[in-house]
Amino acid sequence: MLRHKYTAxxxxxxxxxxxxxxxxxxxxxxxPGDLLQVDVMDTPEMEQQxxxxxxxxxxxxYLGSIHVxxxxxxxxxxxxxxxxxxxxxxxxxxVTVRMMELATQDVSVLGQVHTxxxxxxxxxxxxxxxxxxxxxxxxxxxxxxxxxxxxxxxQLKYYVSNNADEALSNMVMVYPGDTVLVSRAPxxxxxxxxxxxxxxxxxxxxxxxxxxxxxAMAGSANKTSKQSHVRLIRTTDQGQVEMPVxxxxxxxxxxxxxxxxANDIVYVPFxxxxxxxxxxxxxxxxxxGAAIYVVH
Length: 296
Prior knowledge:
single chain; alpha+beta; wza like fold; Outer membrane lipoprotein wza fold like; six-stranded mixed β-sheet; 8 helices; 31% strand
Protein backbone atom coordinates (compact mmCIF):
# COMPACT_ATOMS: atom_id res chain seq x y z
CA MET A 1 0.00 0.00 0.00
CA LEU A 2 2.83 2.39 0.90
CA ARG A 3 4.49 1.63 -2.41
CA HIS A 4 1.32 2.59 -4.28
CA LYS A 5 1.14 5.87 -2.36
CA TYR A 6 4.71 6.74 -3.37
CA THR A 7 3.92 5.85 -6.98
CA ALA A 8 0.82 8.04 -6.97
CA UNK A 9 2.72 10.92 -5.41
CA UNK A 10 5.46 10.61 -8.04
CA UNK A 11 2.91 10.61 -10.86
CA UNK A 12 1.24 13.72 -9.46
CA UNK A 13 4.59 15.49 -9.21
CA UNK A 14 5.53 14.44 -12.74
CA UNK A 15 2.19 15.65 -14.08
CA UNK A 16 2.60 19.02 -12.35
CA UNK A 17 6.09 19.46 -13.79
CA UNK A 18 4.90 18.46 -17.25
CA UNK A 19 2.02 20.92 -17.11
CA UNK A 20 4.42 23.65 -15.96
CA UNK A 21 6.80 22.96 -18.85
CA UNK A 22 3.89 22.81 -21.31
CA UNK A 23 2.55 26.14 -20.01
CA UNK A 24 5.94 27.72 -20.44
CA UNK A 25 6.25 26.43 -24.01
CA UNK A 26 2.77 27.63 -24.86
CA UNK A 27 3.80 31.19 -24.00
CA UNK A 28 6.27 31.05 -26.91
CA UNK A 29 5.39 32.14 -30.41
CA UNK A 30 6.75 30.29 -33.43
CA UNK A 31 9.21 32.23 -35.55
CA PRO A 32 11.40 31.81 -38.66
CA GLY A 33 14.22 29.32 -38.17
CA ASP A 34 12.50 27.35 -35.40
CA LEU A 35 12.50 23.55 -35.63
CA LEU A 36 9.08 21.99 -35.04
CA GLN A 37 8.04 18.42 -34.28
CA VAL A 38 4.63 17.64 -35.75
CA ASP A 39 2.87 14.48 -34.52
CA VAL A 40 -0.48 12.99 -35.47
CA MET A 41 -1.91 10.55 -32.94
CA ASP A 42 -1.90 6.89 -34.07
CA THR A 43 -0.39 7.92 -37.42
CA PRO A 44 3.40 7.52 -37.09
CA GLU A 45 3.94 7.84 -40.83
CA MET A 46 2.83 11.48 -40.58
CA GLU A 47 5.31 12.42 -37.86
CA GLN A 48 7.87 14.93 -39.13
CA GLN A 49 10.34 17.58 -38.08
CA UNK A 50 10.21 20.77 -40.10
CA UNK A 51 12.12 24.04 -40.00
CA UNK A 52 10.14 27.29 -40.27
CA UNK A 53 11.21 29.20 -43.36
CA UNK A 54 12.10 32.89 -43.52
CA UNK A 55 8.55 33.72 -44.61
CA UNK A 56 7.15 31.93 -41.53
CA UNK A 57 5.86 28.79 -43.28
CA UNK A 58 6.44 25.06 -42.92
CA UNK A 59 6.15 22.47 -45.68
CA UNK A 60 4.17 19.44 -44.50
CA UNK A 61 3.51 16.09 -46.16
CA TYR A 62 0.02 15.83 -47.71
CA LEU A 63 -0.62 19.52 -46.97
CA GLY A 64 2.08 21.63 -48.56
CA SER A 65 2.97 25.04 -47.14
CA ILE A 66 1.23 26.38 -44.00
CA HIS A 67 2.05 29.73 -42.39
CA VAL A 68 2.64 29.23 -38.65
CA UNK A 69 4.89 32.15 -37.61
CA UNK A 70 3.41 34.21 -34.79
CA UNK A 71 1.30 31.28 -33.56
CA UNK A 72 1.68 29.28 -30.36
CA UNK A 73 2.38 25.56 -30.83
CA UNK A 74 -1.24 24.78 -29.84
CA UNK A 75 -2.62 27.25 -32.38
CA UNK A 76 -0.36 25.82 -35.09
CA UNK A 77 -1.58 22.32 -34.25
CA UNK A 78 -5.16 23.51 -34.65
CA UNK A 79 -4.35 24.98 -38.07
CA UNK A 80 -2.77 21.71 -39.22
CA UNK A 81 -5.74 19.71 -37.94
CA UNK A 82 -8.14 21.95 -39.86
CA UNK A 83 -6.04 21.61 -43.03
CA UNK A 84 -5.99 17.80 -42.76
CA UNK A 85 -9.79 17.73 -42.54
CA UNK A 86 -10.28 20.34 -45.28
CA UNK A 87 -8.06 18.43 -47.70
CA UNK A 88 -9.81 15.14 -46.80
CA UNK A 89 -6.60 13.57 -45.58
CA UNK A 90 -8.07 12.59 -42.18
CA UNK A 91 -11.49 12.86 -40.56
CA UNK A 92 -10.65 13.50 -36.90
CA UNK A 93 -6.91 14.13 -36.59
CA UNK A 94 -5.30 14.90 -33.26
CA VAL A 95 -2.19 16.94 -33.93
CA THR A 96 0.47 18.16 -31.52
CA VAL A 97 3.24 20.62 -32.34
CA ARG A 98 6.35 20.94 -30.21
CA MET A 99 9.18 23.42 -30.49
CA MET A 100 12.32 21.28 -30.61
CA GLU A 101 14.81 24.03 -31.31
CA LEU A 102 14.54 27.77 -31.56
CA ALA A 103 16.42 29.70 -34.20
CA THR A 104 19.96 30.52 -33.16
CA GLN A 105 19.80 34.02 -31.75
CA ASP A 106 21.78 36.07 -29.31
CA VAL A 107 20.56 36.61 -25.78
CA SER A 108 21.58 40.06 -24.58
CA VAL A 109 22.62 40.31 -20.94
CA LEU A 110 22.91 43.94 -19.89
CA GLY A 111 23.69 45.83 -16.72
CA GLN A 112 25.29 44.69 -13.50
CA VAL A 113 26.91 41.39 -14.49
CA HIS A 114 30.63 40.68 -14.68
CA THR A 115 30.73 40.19 -18.47
CA UNK A 116 27.73 41.87 -20.12
CA UNK A 117 27.25 41.08 -23.79
CA UNK A 118 25.47 38.72 -26.18
CA UNK A 119 25.42 34.93 -25.97
CA UNK A 120 24.15 32.55 -28.67
CA UNK A 121 21.69 29.82 -27.65
CA UNK A 122 19.41 27.56 -29.68
CA UNK A 123 17.22 26.17 -26.88
CA UNK A 124 15.56 27.74 -23.84
CA UNK A 125 17.89 28.08 -20.84
CA UNK A 126 17.21 28.91 -17.20
CA UNK A 127 17.84 32.46 -16.06
CA UNK A 128 20.58 31.19 -13.71
CA UNK A 129 22.36 29.51 -16.64
CA UNK A 130 22.23 32.73 -18.67
CA UNK A 131 23.53 34.78 -15.74
CA UNK A 132 26.37 32.29 -15.29
CA UNK A 133 27.29 32.72 -18.97
CA UNK A 134 27.64 36.43 -18.22
CA UNK A 135 29.92 35.77 -15.25
CA UNK A 136 27.21 36.11 -12.60
CA UNK A 137 25.86 39.15 -10.82
CA UNK A 138 28.26 41.93 -9.92
CA UNK A 139 28.62 43.11 -6.34
CA UNK A 140 26.32 46.08 -7.01
CA UNK A 141 23.58 44.13 -8.82
CA UNK A 142 19.93 44.41 -7.93
CA UNK A 143 18.60 40.89 -7.48
CA UNK A 144 15.35 41.78 -9.24
CA UNK A 145 16.20 40.73 -12.79
CA UNK A 146 14.04 41.58 -15.82
CA UNK A 147 13.65 39.26 -18.82
CA UNK A 148 12.11 40.80 -21.95
CA UNK A 149 10.68 38.37 -24.50
CA UNK A 150 11.90 38.96 -28.05
CA UNK A 151 8.77 37.78 -29.84
CA UNK A 152 5.98 39.06 -27.60
CA UNK A 153 7.65 41.97 -25.80
CA UNK A 154 6.42 40.54 -22.48
CA GLN A 155 8.53 41.46 -19.44
CA LEU A 156 9.06 38.92 -16.68
CA LYS A 157 10.59 39.48 -13.25
CA TYR A 158 12.82 37.00 -11.45
CA TYR A 159 14.35 37.44 -8.01
CA VAL A 160 17.83 35.93 -7.56
CA SER A 161 17.47 35.05 -3.91
CA ASN A 162 20.37 34.50 -1.55
CA ASN A 163 18.46 31.40 -0.45
CA ALA A 164 19.22 28.46 -2.78
CA ASP A 165 15.78 26.85 -2.45
CA GLU A 166 14.03 30.12 -3.30
CA ALA A 167 16.39 30.83 -6.20
CA LEU A 168 15.70 27.42 -7.75
CA SER A 169 11.92 27.66 -7.39
CA ASN A 170 9.75 29.54 -9.90
CA MET A 171 12.62 29.49 -12.37
CA VAL A 172 12.21 31.77 -15.39
CA MET A 173 13.26 30.41 -18.79
CA VAL A 174 15.18 32.59 -21.24
CA TYR A 175 14.64 32.04 -24.97
CA PRO A 176 16.81 32.90 -27.98
CA GLY A 177 16.45 36.58 -28.80
CA ASP A 178 15.41 37.60 -25.27
CA THR A 179 17.04 40.41 -23.33
CA VAL A 180 18.10 40.09 -19.68
CA LEU A 181 18.54 43.33 -17.75
CA VAL A 182 20.22 43.49 -14.35
CA SER A 183 19.85 46.91 -12.75
CA ARG A 184 22.04 48.41 -10.09
CA ALA A 185 20.97 47.70 -6.52
CA PRO A 186 19.48 50.59 -4.56
CA UNK A 187 22.05 52.58 -2.61
CA UNK A 188 21.95 54.35 0.74
CA UNK A 189 24.77 56.53 2.03
CA UNK A 190 26.36 57.03 5.43
CA UNK A 191 28.54 60.12 5.56
CA UNK A 192 30.34 62.04 8.26
CA UNK A 193 31.98 60.79 11.44
CA UNK A 194 31.75 57.01 10.99
CA UNK A 195 34.49 54.44 10.55
CA UNK A 196 33.70 53.65 6.88
CA UNK A 197 31.68 56.42 5.18
CA UNK A 198 30.31 55.63 1.74
CA UNK A 199 27.43 54.18 -0.25
CA UNK A 200 25.91 50.79 0.56
CA UNK A 201 24.26 48.62 -2.09
CA UNK A 202 21.31 46.81 -0.55
CA UNK A 203 21.35 43.20 -1.76
CA UNK A 204 19.65 41.55 1.20
CA UNK A 205 16.68 39.29 0.47
CA UNK A 206 14.10 41.67 1.95
CA UNK A 207 15.95 44.83 0.77
CA UNK A 208 15.06 46.54 4.03
CA UNK A 209 17.62 48.48 6.05
CA UNK A 210 17.30 50.70 9.11
CA UNK A 211 19.42 53.67 10.18
CA UNK A 212 20.99 51.65 12.99
CA UNK A 213 21.80 48.75 10.67
CA UNK A 214 23.52 50.86 8.03
CA UNK A 215 25.53 52.79 10.63
CA ALA A 216 26.66 49.47 12.09
CA MET A 217 27.72 48.37 8.60
CA ALA A 218 29.67 51.61 8.29
CA GLY A 219 31.70 50.58 11.34
CA SER A 220 29.56 52.52 13.82
CA ALA A 221 29.70 56.19 14.72
CA ASN A 222 33.01 57.39 16.09
CA LYS A 223 33.38 58.66 19.66
CA THR A 224 33.95 62.16 18.31
CA SER A 225 30.53 62.20 16.59
CA LYS A 226 27.50 64.16 17.69
CA GLN A 227 24.90 61.38 17.81
CA SER A 228 22.13 63.67 18.99
CA HIS A 229 22.40 65.67 15.74
CA VAL A 230 22.32 62.91 13.11
CA ARG A 231 20.36 63.91 9.99
CA LEU A 232 18.55 61.90 7.34
CA ILE A 233 18.40 63.50 3.88
CA ARG A 234 15.78 62.06 1.55
CA THR A 235 14.99 62.95 -2.06
CA THR A 236 11.26 63.36 -2.74
CA ASP A 237 9.14 64.68 -5.60
CA GLN A 238 9.33 68.10 -3.90
CA GLY A 239 13.14 67.96 -3.64
CA GLN A 240 15.45 67.08 -0.78
CA VAL A 241 14.00 67.04 2.71
CA GLU A 242 15.92 66.73 5.95
CA MET A 243 14.82 64.86 9.07
CA PRO A 244 16.49 64.85 12.47
CA VAL A 245 17.52 61.43 13.77
CA UNK A 246 18.12 60.85 17.47
CA UNK A 247 20.61 58.03 17.08
CA UNK A 248 21.32 58.03 20.79
CA UNK A 249 17.61 57.47 21.54
CA UNK A 250 17.30 54.68 18.95
CA UNK A 251 20.30 52.85 20.40
CA UNK A 252 18.61 52.88 23.81
CA UNK A 253 15.33 51.63 22.32
CA UNK A 254 13.52 54.83 23.21
CA UNK A 255 12.65 55.49 19.55
CA UNK A 256 11.48 52.93 16.95
CA UNK A 257 13.78 51.90 14.07
CA UNK A 258 13.75 54.23 11.08
CA UNK A 259 13.72 52.36 7.77
CA UNK A 260 15.68 53.75 4.85
CA UNK A 261 14.70 54.25 1.22
CA ALA A 262 16.89 54.13 -1.90
CA ASN A 263 19.30 57.09 -2.15
CA ASP A 264 18.78 58.17 1.46
CA ILE A 265 21.77 59.88 3.09
CA VAL A 266 22.48 59.44 6.80
CA TYR A 267 24.86 62.14 8.02
CA VAL A 268 26.62 61.67 11.35
CA PRO A 269 28.22 65.02 12.24
CA PHE A 270 31.52 65.57 13.97
CA UNK A 271 31.31 67.26 17.32
CA UNK A 272 32.77 70.41 15.85
CA UNK A 273 30.15 73.08 15.28
CA UNK A 274 31.01 73.66 11.62
CA UNK A 275 30.22 70.00 10.84
CA UNK A 276 26.98 70.04 12.79
CA UNK A 277 25.88 72.99 10.66
CA UNK A 278 27.05 71.51 7.32
CA UNK A 279 24.48 72.24 4.60
CA UNK A 280 22.26 69.62 2.97
CA UNK A 281 23.66 70.50 -0.46
CA UNK A 282 27.25 69.97 0.69
CA UNK A 283 26.37 66.62 2.28
CA UNK A 284 24.62 65.44 -0.89
CA UNK A 285 27.55 66.58 -3.02
CA UNK A 286 29.98 64.58 -0.88
CA UNK A 287 28.32 61.31 -1.95
CA UNK A 288 29.51 61.75 -5.56
CA GLY A 289 32.97 60.37 -4.82
CA ALA A 290 31.92 57.97 -2.05
CA ALA A 291 33.19 54.41 -1.99
CA ILE A 292 30.51 51.76 -2.60
CA TYR A 293 30.12 48.77 -0.27
CA VAL A 294 27.82 45.77 -0.52
CA VAL A 295 25.23 44.85 2.10
CA HIS A 296 24.67 41.07 2.29
